[in-house]
Amino acid sequence: MSTLSAQTVLQWAMEIERNGEAFYRAAAAASQDREVRNLLQDLAHQEGRHYRTFERMLARAPAAPASETADEDRTFVETALAGALLGPDKGLERAREAQNEEQALRAAMTFEKDTLLFFYELAEAVPESHLPAVRAVIDEERDHLRQLSRVLASGPWVP
Prior knowledge:
This protein is mostly helical. The chain contains six helices and no strands. The protein has helices spanning 6-30, 34-60, 70-82, 90-97, 101-125, 131-154.
């Protein structure tokens, strides 16, 4: 992804975080289990923080000249992410599909895994000065995955 501008990937990162926040808020509202609801509400808050981090980074991101493969790379990434992370109301869509806490937690884990993969690529596309912030978000996203896994394993919904 290094041929894409930092501005492009940061805009995608913001959309991913906005979708994640919407997913967690909707899933929390539908949750009957207090522990699951609290976790999902906390994760929604953290996704909002990540969005603001990327928003600040975008304001300082240098404009990059287009490379020869930028359009091809953009198409590849947009196609790869469209089903998983990008698109209007993608988070709400996923939350509506979950029929219960187990499905919501599993959908959240899938979203976090996809997000982690994207952010590993993002780390290669942003300026060096942004790397500490991206790595901090990667660490938090990884922690989200651990939290979700722990709650999923501890719940009565696991046979």
